[in-house]
Amino acid sequence: MSNAELATSYAALILADDGVEITADKLQTLIKAAKIEDVEPIWSSLFAKALEGKDVKDLLLNVGSGGGAAAAPTSGGAAAGGAGAVEETKEEEKEEAKEESDEDMGFGLFD
């Protein structure tokens, strides 16, 4: 990561920690206050647009969570779908695991 990206990232984290809206002008102000000279204004604009309307603290807390595409089954969902739905899900997971196996490809890691 370049110094420009790093400086802009830190500036965005400072603003988020203070609960201040992240804008390109505020990012540039923080970067200049830190006396970092080699940051082009495009970085501030890019970071501000990327983080617009997003909760940075929430993003940091959910790093590596997979984006939340699949919701965990709840007791209400199990009651509505019954045991058959749970069994179908387990069967699908087993089929996917078999497809991803290296054994089917005919070679191993150290061949």
From TrEMBL:
GO terms for biological process: cytoplasmic translation; translational elongation. It comes from the Eukaryota. Keywords: Ribonucleoprotein, Ribosomal protein. P1 and P2 exist as dimers at the large ribosomal subunit. It holds the Pfam family Ribosomal_60s. Plays an important role in the elongation step of protein synthesis. GO terms for cellular component: cytosolic large ribosomal subunit. It comes from Hyaloscypha variabilis (strain UAMH 11265 / GT02V1 / F). Belongs to the eukaryotic ribosomal protein P1/P2 family. InterPro entries: P1/P2_N_sf, Ribosomal_P1/P2. Transmembrane segments: none annotated. The keyword Transmembrane helix does not apply. Residues 87-97 have a biased composition (Basic and acidic residues). Residues 66-111 are annotated as: Disordered. Signal peptide: none annotated. This is Large ribosomal subunit protein P1. Gene3D superfamilies: 1.10.10.1410. GO terms for molecular function: protein kinase activator activity; ribonucleoprotein complex binding; structural constituent of ribosome.
